[in-house]
Design a protein that fits this description.
With about 80 residues, the protein is of the alpha+beta class. It has four helices and three strands; from the N terminus they run ββααβαα. The protein has a single domain, classed as GIY-YIG endonuclease, CATH 3.40.1440.10. InterPro entries: GIY-YIG_endonuc, GIY-YIG_endonuc_sf, UPF0213_domain.
């Protein structure tokens, strides 16, 4: 199982990623050197959207689609969820 997630950073920016263990990855983004370089500079981060996928391929395609959206479109997606 893979998770697609969107985080809201302390500077109000949005970060999108995929992972296998959502709780562990959120902890890494907030507390560990293993978090993404982008989020390490913008802590704390808050999980605002997640969706499960059966495989990495599908999750990666969905991630690419979300990353191509504007901020307004991402916020609309989150609100609709």
């Amino acid at each position: 199982m893979y998770y697609l997630y969107i985080l809201k950073c302390a500077d109000r920016s949005l970060y999108t990623g995929i992972c296998v263990d959502l709780a562990k990855r959120l902890w890494q983004h907030n507390s560990s050197a293993l978090g993404a370089k982008y989020t390490r500079a913008r802590r704390p981060v808050k999980l605002i959207y997640s969706r499960r996928f059966r495989n990495r391929s599908t999750a990666s395609r969905a991630e690419a689609g979300i990353k191509s959206l504007s901020r307004a479109q991402k916020l609309a997606l989150i609100k609709a969820h």
